[in-house]
Every structure is written in structure tokens, then in C-alpha cells.
Amino acid sequence: MGTGNSRAEAAYRRSIAAFKNPTLDLLHGRYAPFVVATLSLVFTADRPAVAVADAHVEVGEIVEDLRASGFGDLDRGLPAGSGREICRYWVRVGWLVPQIVDDAEVYRLSAQAVGALEIAGRAGGGRSRVSRSRVRTLLESIEQLVHDSEADQAEQLVRLRAERDRLDAEIARIEALEPGAYEPLDDDQLLEEAELVLHLARELPADFSRVAESIDAMQRDVVTELRQDVRPAGEVLRDYLRRGQHVMQATPEGRAFEGALRLIGDPEHIDRLTEQLRSLLGQPFARLMGADQRVELDAIAKRVEQGVLEVLVAQRRASQVITAQVRTHDPARDREVDELLRGVMAGLQRWAGDAKATDRVEPLRGFPVAHVGHLRQTLGDVRPPRAPAPLGLSAEDAEFEQADTRAWGGPHYRELEEHVAGLGGRFDLAEAFARGPEDARRPVDLLGLLEIVHRDGMVEGEEISIVEALRPDGTTRRFAFGSVTAGAHPDTAEHEEGDDD
What we know:
Distance between the termini: 129 Å
Oligomer: single chain
Largest sheet: 3 strands, antiparallel
Strand content: 5-15%
Radius of gyration: 42 Å
Number of domains: 3
Number of helices: 20
Helix content: 55-70%
Strand order of the largest sheet: 1-3-2
């Protein structure tokens, strides 16, 4: 083989590199017709992400349907295996990308798969025509590029004035026409313009996917570099948090997308685009378009919105992953793991140098267990080995570290019961509380006394009773409540009041 750099050799090397692209690999593979058909059915403009379980079921149903129809006997045939096995293979070769969305695993088409579907759809949709719209778009793009690259201020002013004069002349021409005399382009030319719009729109999904995948690849590179980094934690934190916050500027695709986002990122722009497309579908020339073309034209705005959302989700996910890695970054621990792995690899290389083909390595089936003495081996009896000592009931049995805090506890039920027993028949709750023992006139004792008289029978009146309670620290609190008469059941009191009437 020659060593010269001929034009043929250079062209051939470029062609070899191009055919290594997964997009062409998908279209060149043995099962390419099945892959393109299945992916176009499962993933649509309205459904860019599909749950993993749903995708496995749908792909399995499609391949079984085609097998039953006899397509497995054709030249390219159909792949073997279940829907799950087919999808897993597509993930390995880069046609599907698994992601986590809202705590659920989903599949998305890779940028290469989107590009392959676009190529297949364009090739199957008929030949492209050299139209006035395509040539005009090319010439306008070249002219715009020339003007944008012009650094001479005087030349820019000449161009802008010429453009203004042209627009003024067109305005004057239209104003000179009679009412109703203005005629737009004919339907054939409008149809050409619409086909050009569809052609440009078909490339957008692949462009958005490439931006999202470039961000994911940058995220993986950053995480890999972070795990290998041995710089001080403060320096690592500043560097990688900055990259996480400005992840969109880290890739050429991301920077280009940010420029495009200024034109299409505003929801108002998307709404305006939707209205414009629906207006176009109502024009007479739209009747010349096929049904698929009309559906595709109507879905452009939704495709743009979904593409923008896909990129923004990838950006947010990358920022979160990088930030989380920085927060858990431990250079010492990472070095220990790396040293352990290098030791394992070195030991394997030494063993492989002297081992025979029949030698075997006994695998490590578990880690050593630390011996910490005798531990309980059964949970059958959860009762303690002995009952706790009974609590002391006398005041002399209580021991306190600093101060007796029992005065701040619950009601003194025993003292209250004795006080109520000495009052006899009926009595007013407020008066009984005021005449009670001093150590049983706390706010909590008022509640305890109310609980006791409620148990024994009480009647509530319409008058308001006011009592003054004494707290353990010597401060007082006043309470107001509806009057309560103790010593009778409510039903009995109502009966006796009726007898008095």
C-alpha cells in the first residue's frame, strides 16, 4: 500500500471515518429496516421518552407481529431475542440512552438514532428538489454571513441604508396598488417554502439531542477528573462548582444552543410560533400538502419546545451531579481505593505471569467477619432478663440531683379527692378551688378538680367564674370559665329545675 497523500487516499480515509459514525452504522446494519421502523413507532414527536418497561413490551410486540407475518424470512430478517434483550443491545451500541426522569427509568433516542431516522425519513419521502426557496435560503445565508463578518463600519452603514431603501420601495409599491389588487405568491411557490421549512425542522431533534449528549459527556469527564484529583479540597470545590454552574458554556454545542435559546427559549415565542403554524395550515396552499406533511408542520412548535426542555433537563442534571460529587469528594478515600485497585491489578499480573492454563483462583466469597465476643443469637424472647425494681411511693424514697421538681408535675389527685370528699353534696367549682389546700391550687390542679367533678356529675351555668391559681414559683394566674356546679348528674339537675317551675 502506498504512503503518498493523494486526494483519493485522503477522501477514502474521510469516508472510513464517516462510516464509523453510529448514525451510518445503524443504517448499514443487518437489521436496519427493523430498527428504523421500530424506533419510529415507539418514539414520536409527542413521546420523546418512553418508560423502560413499556418500551420492552412494545418492541417485543412489534417483533412478534413481524415474525408472525413472515418478515423473519427476508434477507435482512429480524433480530432474535425478546423486546428487553433487543432494547438492551440498542443501549450498548448507542441507539438508545437510558435516563432517570422523576424517579423512573426511561429510554430516549440518542442523537445518532435521531439523525438516522431523519435520514431514512427523508430518503423514503421522495427526492429533494432544487427549488427557488432552497437557493434563495442559501444565497441569503451567504449574504448574511458576509455582512456579519464585515468589520468596516462604513460598509455596514451602506448595507443597512440599501436594505432600508429596498424596504421603502416595496412599501411604496404596495401602497400604490388598488385595494384588493395585491397578490401573494402562487400556491406552488408557497408549497416549496413549506417543504423547506419541514426540511429544516427535521434536523432540529438530532441537534437538540447532540447538545444534551455533549452535556452528559462533559459531566462524565468532570466526575472522572474529580475522582482522580489530588488538589486541596478548597481549590477543587471552587473549580468544579464553577464548572457545574456554567455547564452550558463548557461545550461548543452548549454555547451554540445558548445563542439559539435567545430566539426560541421564551414561552411567548413558542406560542407565537404555534399560532403562525396553525395559520399556515388554514391557507389554501396547505391543501396541496400531504396529510403527513400537515401533521409534521403542525408539530414543529412542540418539537422545538421538547428539544429545549431536553437540553435544560440535561443541564440541570449535570449541575446536580457535579455539585453532589464535589460535596462528597474525599481525596484520601479515593486514593485508598485507587491504591487498592492497583494492588489487585498488580497481583493479578504477577499471578498471570507464572500461572498455567489449568490453574484456578479461588474467588473471595465474603469479607472477614470481626470477632466481638458473644452476641445474642436469637430474638425469640424479647423480655428483659429480670423485672425492674418497683417505684417508691413515699416522699422519703425520692432522690434529686439538684432540686425537687415534682411541684411542676401533674394534678395532685389524692389531695383533691380528699378535699372534694369533705365538701359534701353540691358545691361551686370555683369556690371549692379557692378553699382548697395551698399546694393544690396550681393551674394544673384546676384541671384535675374539673376532671373529678365531671366524673361525679356536674352542671354548667351561664355565669362566669373567675379563680386565681398559685404557681410553684409564687406567681399567680387568673382563669375565667363558665360556672360549674358539682355533685349532681346533668339529667337530674334538669329534672329538678323542671319540678321547681
